[in-house]
């Protein structure tokens, strides 16, 4: 059992190996996840904050996210930390 069910569902269910066949980009996948599972999305920000505090290095974050089923690699210099922070920001913006 995972301690991050929202991230597990989003990463494994929406950003899986073939995600690019279904979505234009990761943000479209996130929007679909929020629409499909609003109850899970509501806990995403807390989960991301916990993951960021527990996994300090990029390599550790990458390994943890891969364990959850993510097949996505951020292309910008902000890396996984910046990408997860942006996910949290977008989820919060959608709740307002």
Automatic annotation (TrEMBL):
Residues 4-90 form the CdiI immunity protein domain. It comes from the Bacteria. It holds the Pfam family CdiI_2. This is CdiI immunity protein domain-containing protein.
């Amino acid at each position: 059992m995972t301690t991050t069910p929202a991230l597990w569902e989003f990463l494994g269910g929406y950003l899986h190996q073939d995600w690019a066949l279904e979505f234009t980009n990761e943000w479209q996948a996130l929007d679909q996840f929020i629409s499909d599972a609003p109850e899970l999305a509501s806990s995403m920000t807390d989960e991301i904050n916990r993951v960021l505090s527990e996994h300090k290095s990029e390599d550790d974050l990458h390994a943890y996210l891969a364990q959850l089923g993510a097949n996505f690699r951020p292309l910008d210099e902000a890396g996984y930390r910046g990408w997860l922070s942006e996910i949290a920001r977008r989820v919060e913006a959608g709740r307002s």
